[in-house]
Amino acid sequence: MAIKNEEIIEALKEKTLLELKELVDMMKETFGVDPSAVAVAAPGAAQEDEAPTEVDVVITDVGAKKIGVLKAVRELTGLGLKEAKALVDNIPAAVKEKIDPEDAKPIKEKLEEAGATVELK
Fold this sequence. Notes:
- This protein is α+β, with helices and mostly antiparallel strands.
- The protein is built from 6 helices and 3 strands.
- Helix 4 crosses helix 5 (81-89) and helix 4 packs antiparallel against helix 6.
């Protein structure tokens, strides 16, 4: 039967600072990891859960309506026919890069309406 985290915390509350230091040293030796380094890394992990501030709008598949997607790409980017065709022919391709996620949503919707499969990365 495994010991619950709450039980470990209660047991640690009863230890002196010297005993806790010895425990940390034993953990370093046993697991090869400094427990204090893990505690420092934890706040950085919380940042990964935050929404991105910039995204790329990437076409991953043109679908059956290539001409419609080509027209949408030209409209959204202002590219000429040759440049837009080169973009659509080389999938996956970023239509817009490093833009606000809120600005990316209508672009994604427009491309999907035209028949493309789109991801926000």
